Amino acid sequence: MVSVINSIDTAHEDMIHDAQLDYYGTKLATCSSDRLIKVFDVKGGQQTLVANLAGHEGPVWQVAWAHPMFGNIIASCGYDRKVIIWKETNGTWDKLYVYSNHDSSVNSVAFAPHELGLVLACGSSDGSISIVFSTGDGSWDAKKINGAHSIGCNAVSWAPAVAPNALLDQSGKQQPVKKLVSGGCDNLVKIWREEDSQWVEDQKLEGHSDWVRDVSWAPSIGLPKSIIASCSQDCRVIIWTNDGTFNNWTSKVLHKFNDVVWHLSWSITGNILAVSGGDNKVSLWKENLEGQWVCISDVNKGQGQITDGQSAISS
Amino acid sequence: MSSSCSKTMSCNTEGQVNSIAINRDSTLIVAAGRSVFKIFSVDEERFIERLNLRVGKNLNLSYSTLDIAWNHFEDNILASAATNGAVVIWDINRHQRNKQEFVFQEHKRTVNRVTFHEKEHNMLLSGSQDGSMKLFDIRKKEVGVEFCIGSTSVRDVQFCPCQLSYFTFASADESGNVLIWDMRRPDRVEKQFTAHNGPVFTIDWHPEDRTRLATAGRDKMIKVWDSAKCKLTHFIQTIASVSKIRWRPMREFYIASCSLLVDSSINVWDIRRPFIPFATFENHKDVTTSIVWKNDDPHILYSGSKDCFIYQHLFKDAKRPADLLVPAGLDISTQGIISHACTDKNEKTQTSSGRPFFKKNPGRSEKFLEATSYLMTFCHPEESLSMDWFVISAQRYLLTGRPLEDLLDHNANVAHELGRHQVAQTWEMLKTLYCTNLPSTVVTGHPNLHQQRTISVSSDKMDTTLVKEKSDKVGKGARHKSKADPEDKTLDVTSGGSDEEISDKEMNERNLSNIARGQINPPTDWDIYYGGGENSFLDFNSLADMENNKQPLTLPTEAFHPRHEIASQTRSLEHFQYVTESPASGNEGETSTGTGNTNPYASDKETSFPILTADPLALQFPEWNFKNIVIDMMKYHAREFDVQTSACMLIVLGNRIKSEIDHQVQENWLLSYIDLLGRFKLWSIANEVIKLSYPSPVSHLNQQSTTVHVTCNKCNRQLQRSGWSCDRCKSVINICSICHQPVKGLYVWCQGCSHGGHMDHIQDWLSLDPQCPAGCGHFCEYT
Questions:
Q1: Predicted complex ipTM
Q2: Mean pLDDT across the stretch A298-309?
Q3: B150: buried, middle or exposed (CB in 10 Å: 19+, 13-18, 0-12)?
Q4: Closest Cα partner for B670 from B652, B684, B650, B642?
Q5: What pLDDT, on a 0 to 100 scale, did the predictor assign at position B461?
Q6: What is the pLDDT of residue B619?
Q7: Which of A77, A137, B6, B77 supports an S-S bond with A106, CB 3.0-4.6 Å?
Q8: Given an 8 Å threshold on Cβ–Cβ distance, is A267 in contact with B385?
Q9: Where is there biased composition of kind Basic and acidic residues (chain B) (predicted)?
């Protein structure tokens, strides 16, 4: 009944703000206010610290892993307005590139699907989103969406590259989707797409009544529709779906929690959504056959108990 | 408290402010800079300009101020430090317009700091770029004592609060050193330590703790020292060089700082949590140059900035970065392990009904210090997140290399064993649809192949009844029967023929096995026979291998499981194993009631044939196009987040279905599946999928970015331009052993003797002679 719980002593000296597993789920990167990023090997239920990445001059808010085809690469962003891209070579991590073209704290980083190359989106408190990309010859370039969210952007997430209704090029080959979703302090969720090498607003999704804290585009594993989850300080999680028809997004409130919802994470196939809230709990949600989101488990790590909440909540 | 009636307010001074100072009772504030020198009164609602000191005809450099200090005792006396090295005493009560009381021209270079002694109100201390500090007596208008530190510049001087130590002051210089002096002893330094890497811009004594001295500088560090032991006790790293620090009055651990560059905000730190500011004031648009706490009031802070504004900040209006940050991290691994970092390790009191119950709500400052996070990984005990099924399925599913029926059967079994009955059902349905009803061949399904094939169906009567009986059970009705029948005709010929080849020599055994297979088998299998019949009825494909009989054994719909289920399952599907096993089962079969039935079958093969062919013609039904159903099923699985099933079915069915599904959809499924396999490091399976996929974007995947490097077999140099000539040896390498020409395409190479050549040459040669064409005497082996 009780799941295997492993408590990892990270030895971080301050609060941990993000913990991300790599593509294969064998490495865990954590970042903290103590300006450090720590990388752990999590093979076989054992966690061993393999690296301490020091380089930020302020708290580190988020980390993201690149697709392994580019090597072991981590991007991190923080209060010092910097985005640092780290690369491991022969067991040592070094800075590959530092992007410092934001005027305020950088809150979120996300790597694009590997089909698009080594591309990174960063959302900052200065309200802008940067798309930083490797030009392939070792140098980096960036495009910026200015004024993406007034007051600040809190989260960015990329659309899967393989998606239904993708554009076709002349040869009939499917073009990888180049879209991302962002959430900000203006209570909005916005979808952006690249058009003629410029990033333009594709869609503005209104539904939250307070800061949007996290957005997550679900992996579309052969799915005919696009799904985005967003969570907010208004304690709600909203699921946005697009059935493939042009720009027609419908929203459904997954649940209104008792506390701020900080993070969202989709399972690998996109059928289960994990929600982490201000009450320090993680709950797992799944859509049932009737199209309602049901909590399939509440995990209170303190006791390691699973309470099966069978309450189906529809908006 | 006075702050309760105050508010955050600002005022434009119309000039970049370098320094501000407040008078003793905090009613007046002076803002000074290169082009501004004004005194404002601090009202409840706003700052009101009271006096502009920058007046008169000859505004020389002594009006251009770097630092300013207000006398602690006489409210009308101010001192300013000018960029030209002058220290100016101002008396705002002077009746002239020019309020300059006296100008000390003692310093040779810019004066960075002036400060009054708290009690000795005639004593003014200055620190200058010229490396000296001077203690002025402003009443005598002369320099009392001079302190010299040599060539380096003095950036800051501060008196120790005099209730702590009356005569002590500290100086900081550009080389990173902090010196502690006794003002009566200009000849020697009391204490000295290197505090920073690079210039120290600012120092501040803790108002209540004499040993606590804070320093900060260009190295972006704020350091707190035990000045008695010269020991570092706390440090804070900021994001920019620090220009000013000020301890918050009446608080033990708080210190405010502002930056020289980049960051225009004022941060207030708790030195116990050095990573994130406790509070931030972000009102200024340009860097803040000067900060002053209201005397004995921790709730009000004044600041001046290069944006020309002075501000009164109320602590309650400060931003609290700690409240905005995300205190949790969350991720799900490919294996379904959840990692979660949060601030709350273990709330024993926490129940599902409510939040933890605190006796006392901790204050903001206590909460601020609760900054540890706990990181845990856990997996969900239910299957919902585990992807084991995916990995096992991927490893065990057969996608090619066997007859369709086998593949479908096998995959259904795999799904069953993993408890995925719905998926298993789908595989079985595919078997039903495709193996009884091949759309590509005119002839569709047929029943009980094995019967006609080897045993030969006895009488049509017998057969039809049997068929009917089964079809009732299956619920498929006569349609199947009718479709099945024509198949009899063709398959009888083909399979019968093939059977004969095999069975010629082992006729006897075969008969036994046929009996066993046919229906008989052990008594327990008698039940299975119906199952078997049903299954074969549904499933036979053109090859109609008899092992199909065995498959239904695993069907959970059986009334009961045969005793020998496991044995029969593990049996290989090869004919010969059947044969070897058949005697045993045959023996058992004798006891069964079924034996009676089979014998007649066996005897009447020939007679049954013509009659069977007649039947189907009479009952011909229109062909049923079920492809859409199949496609729907596949789409359903994809929609249910199981792209594996869809992709595998797509591959297994291959040509039968591929023209019917939109290419993009197929490509999506396959690419998604391949991507998933990659995540689980199942690369060889992914490669197999790629090989078996036909949409070109998919099938070309494994040909991309694959390079085979060839090196010269003479000099080991890597061949750059072509595979047959070496740049260094300047020779053609690996010529064909037969025609002695370079081989520009495929080179066939014997791994035994390393000779080889053009593929067709070698083939021709070896068809005549097994020995190596190069004459080395090796009997070449090619696989």
A1: 0.84
A2: 43
A3: exposed
A4: B650
A5: 46
A6: 52
A7: A77
A8: yes
A9: 460-475
Give kind and range of the element (H or E) at residue B125. strand B123-128
Mean model confidence pLDDT for chain A = 83
Radius of gyration of chain A measured on its C-alpha atoms? 19
* Binary contact (A222, B647; C-beta < 8 A): yes
Residue ranges in chain B modelled with pLDDT below 50: 1-3, 346-360, 438-618
- Tell me whether residue A315 is in a domain: yes
To which residue do tokens 């203690």 refer? B135
pLDDT in the model for residue B361: 53
Chain A contact for B640 (CB, 8 A cutoff): yes
The Cα–Cα gap between A289 and B641 comes to 13
Domain that holds residue A305: 280-315
Distant-in-sequence, close-in-space partners of B544: CB < 8 Å, separation ≥ 6:
B449, B450, B453, B491, B495, B536
What's the number of domains chain A is made of? Answer: 1
* Tokens at A274, concatenated: 């994990």
Closest to B376 (Cβ–Cβ): which among A7, A31, A163?
Answer: A7
Contact at 8 Å (CB) between A182 and A155? yes
- A296 part of a folded domain: yes
Q: What is the pLDDT of residues A274-286, one digit of tens each?
A: 888 877 778 888 8
SS (H, E, C) chain A: CCCCEEEECCCCCCCEEEEEECCCCCEEEEEECCCEEEEEECHHHCCEEEEEEECCCCCEEEEEECCHHHCCEEEEEECCCCEEEEEEECCEEEEEEEECCCCCCEEEEEECCHHHCCEEEEEECCCCEEEEEECCCCCEEEEEECCCCCCCEEEEEECCCCCCCCCECCCCCECCCCEEEEEECCCEEEEEEEECCEEEEEEEEECCCCCEEEEEECCCCCCCCEEEEEEECCCEEEEEEECCCCCCEEEEEEEECCCCEEEEEECCCCCEEEEEECCCCEEEEEECCCCCEEEEEEEECCCCEEECCCCEECC
> B512: distance to nearest CA of chain A, Å?
50
- Asked whether the beta carbons of A94 and A141 are under 8 A apart, the reply is no
pLDDT at B347: 43
Residues belonging to chain A? 315
Lowest pLDDT segment from A83-87, A97-101, A265-269, B568-572: B568-572
**CA–CA dist B326, B758 (Å, integer):** 67
Residue B314 CB neighbour total at 10 angstroms? 17
Q: Touching check for B374 and chain A: CB below 8 Å?
A: yes
How far is the alpha carbon of A254 from chain B, nearest alpha carbon, in Å? 18
A184-228 pLDDT per residue, tens: 999 999 999 888 888 999 889 999 999 999 999 988 776 677 889
Cβ proximity of B513 and B579 under 8 Å? yes
Q: What is the pLDDT of residue A158?
A: 92
- From edge to edge, which strands make up the β-sheet containing A73-78? A60-65, A73-78, A83-89, A92-99
- List, in order, residues 6 or more apart from B8 with CB less than 8 Å away: B283, B311, B312, B313, B314, B317
Annotate B238-291 with DSSP letters as a single string.
-SS-EEEEEEPTT-SSEEEEEESSS---EEEEETTBTTS-SEEE---SS-EEEE
Amino acid in position A186: D
Smallest Cα distance from A135 to chain B, Å: 18
pTM here is 0.70
Asked if A296 and B382 come within 8 Å (Cβ–Cβ), the reply is: yes
Which one is predicted more confidently, A15 or B503? A15
In a domain, A149, yes or no: no
B343 in reach of chain A (CB within 8 A) = yes
pLDDT digits (tens, 9 = 90+) for A141-160: 999 999 899 889 999 999 88
Q: Which amino acid, one-letter code, is at B352?
A: S
* Interface A:B, Cβ pairs < 8 A: 246
Interface test with A, best of B320, B325, B649 (most A CBs within 10 A): B325
Chain centroid, CA B780 distance in Å: 53
